[in-house]
Amino acid sequence: MKILLSNDDGVHAEGIKALADALSDIAEIVVVAPDRNRSGASNSLTLEQPLRVSEISPKTFSVQGTPTDCVHFALNELMKDDLPDLVLSGINHGANLGDDTLYSGTVAAAMEGHFLGVQSIAFSLVGKKHFDTAARIVREVVERHISSPIPTNRLLNINIPDVDYDALQGQQVTRLGARHHAENMIKQQDPRGHDIYWLGPPGKEQDAGEGTDFYAIEHNFVSITPLQVDLTAHESLPAMSSWLS
Questions:
Q1: pLDDT tens per residue across span 199-212
Q2: Strand, helix or coil at 41?
C-alpha cells in the first residue's frame, strides 16, 4: 500500500520520522510536510503567494506552507495519478484533545485528506518522550485497517499517552471533551518598548468525564475519536426556521 505522511511540527520533526520508521516495511511512504513548525495553523491555506516545494530526500518533500497546503499539494499534484491508500498526520509533539482539534494543524492535515476522499488519521503523543509507544500504536492501527478496513467514512483523531507501551491500559473509542476558556493573555514589552502579547495557557478541562478523550488519556488509554467535518447544528434547524417565520 501507499501512505502519505504529513504533520504540523515540520518535516524534520522527531514525530514524523517515528511515523515513517514504523511503517516503512509494510508500505510505500511519501512524506510531504511543512518546512518549519506550523502548530496551530488549523485549516489555513496559502492563497496570496505560491508554494515552494523541495525534495530534501527521496520521496520526502518540504513545503513552505501550512499542513493543509502540504496535503492539498500532495493529493492534487504530486500524487494525483496514483493516490495513496491512507493519509496519516503526526506523530504530533503534544496532545490534540477536545477544543484543541479546532486549532490543530495535525488534525487539519488529516482533514484535508478526508476532504479529498482518502481515509485519514491524525496521531498525537500527549507529551514529547515516548514516540516509540506512539509508533507501535500507529503500526497496530494501520495493520488493523489493512486486515479489517475502518468501518466508517470518518476522520480519526488518535491521542496516545506519553508512557511506556506496557503501561497502556488499552484503547477506547471516545468523544471530544472540552476546556474552560483560555487564560488571559500575557502582556510584555519588547526591547524597543513596544507592547507585545503572548497567548495564555489553555484552560483547564471542563468536560472531561468518562467517555471523553481527556478521561481516556488520564487513565492511560489510547483515545480514538471519529470526527465529522459537518459543523451544522442540525438540532437547531427547526428552532431557527421558526424564528425566521
A1: 766 666 666 788 89
A2: coil
How far is Cα 43 from Cα 122, in angstroms, rounded to an integer? 14
Tell me the H-state helices in the chain.
14-23, 67-73, 100-103, 105-115, 131-147, 213-218, 237-244
Contact 216, 172 (CB under 8 A): yes
Cα 136 to Cα 10, 127, 131, 143, 215, distances in angstroms: 21, 16, 9, 11, 22
Give pLDDT tens digits for 1-32: 999 999 999 999 999 999 999 999 999 999 99
How far, rounded to the nearest angstrom, does the alpha carbon of residue 182 sit from its chain's CA centroid?
20
What is the reported pTM? 0.90
Q: 2-178+207-244 — its CATH code?
A: 3.40.1210.10
Residue 52: its pLDDT value, please?
95
Rg (CA), the chain: 19
d(CA 140, CA 144): 6
